[in-house]
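User: Before I run my own analysis I want an independent prediction to cross-check against. Here's the chain; please return only the structure tokens and, at the end, one sentence I can use as a sanity check.
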Amino acid sequence: MSALQITAIVLCFTIPLLGWALLFRQSYRFYRLFQTGAPDPTRNDHPATRVWTVLREFLGHTRLARLPIVAIAHWFTALGFFLLFATLVNAFFQLIWADFRLPIVGGFVPFEWLIELFAGIGFIGICVLIWIRQRNHPRSAEGAAGRRSRFFGSVWWQAYYVEFTIFAVMLCIMVLRTLEARLVQIDHPTESLVLHFPLSGWGAQWLWQGADKGTVEQLIYLVAMLKILVSFAWMITISLTPTMGVAWHRFLAFVNIYFKRHADGRTSLGAVQPMMVAGKPFDHIIGHGQPRCPAAHAEQQARATLVQMNDGRLGVVANPERVCRRAQFIAGDVAINAGRVFHQDAVGEDVLDGDGDDVADLVLIGKGRPGIALQAAQA
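Assistant: Structure tokens:
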């Protein structure tokens, strides 16, 4: 083994372990956070319709129909994310055997064409998406601070990082395919490159013509290592950044689509749905919570509060424990404020009822413990 191959093996068989560990840890944290609320039974009706909605929206990218170029480019990158996972598995084995191919499917011509189709068009697709993002950047859009841009409010470093990752992975796949074609050309000169490498076979003729087998093998070790490290650097990054929706949506989109308000996937625009307690609408401002409402002290009619949905969602995901401690709940004559449990006595004074250790067990949505409603998710 060369020094390059040994280095590649050491790095690529240790760093991924860290990536998987962090990913499972964050996935478990998401699970615990989502378990904090009570289930909404209306989101699980008509399961067959909901499954069809997931398939239709994912495979058809129907929500992007009004942006056909974006839809096509995103379709290839989205499906390629799952289909091209096979090339990541293959890359691990290539660190040991440069000419390795996956059993059964590795030399199956339709599968090879599919891999090259999604890698090639996926590479072009991410270049198109990068161009579209720059063309519609807020710096050149109308409105105050570029508010007319469809990317206004984006977390730009996250967007750029995801774009770089997809670009680098697609490029590595295509380069590896050209190197594999050259290796086949050396070991099996009579084998058809056009048949097995329809989009990358030209690389054996133009990029690596004249390169000997040893050089090609070293290049395969190098590119396979880069592909693996870029992929797992992305895994580590999203695991440490739970608010990175531009990346996490690749996993959570299926769940979000399945549990839409309407099973058929139609939009839910309109008035915000009331908070439900014990299956009935609950007004979390009027009533027992009125003394705590600033509008009441100002002799003003209580009214809805403008909510920054994105900031609130990111705050909950990033600091679930802090949000729960800062939350205020109204439950009949029991109030939980800043992690402490109070019970109002006969004259209306707040009396400490406990240390609030059960705050995380309170049900915020659905038909959970009666009388629990969230008044302020974040102080």
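Sanity check: Strands lie at 276-277, 280-281, 328-331, 334-337, 340-344, 350-354, 373-376.
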